[in-house]
Amino acid sequence: MREALTQHEVSTPYERGWSELSNGELLDAAEGEGFALRVTTDSNLRYQQNLGHRRLAIVVLSSTSWPRIQRAIAPVVVAARQSVDKYAYLATPSETAENDYNLNIPRYVDTFDEEEEIDLKAVRAEREKLKAELAKLEEEMAVYLKEPGYE
Hints:
This protein is mostly helical. Helix content is 45%, strand content 5%.
């Protein structure tokens, strides 16, 4: 992700010597160093911290899977600056306060995709056709099995 955020200073807690810090201490240290954004996969962060007074923006990734994160890098980069439909929402501090600092992704990002409508009449017709084909095959199989004496 570092390569995608070339206009930003990017570092990990380990690189900063902060790997032993608790979440609150880590956020304090990041804000103290002037960081504007924290990218994390810790979806429980909102339960562990009072985020209302934070100046630091927090992007919570919905997966710890690196291949999935790689596919989402572009939206994360844009999310550092703005909302992206289906991927990210740049919530204001007042919005997070209105939501009781609930950072659950679905509260802010609508990832719902409308499912294609299923034509049940067509499905039923296809099923009836397949049943007829199966009956024909069963009859043919019975003939083949009858010849060697299997009935």
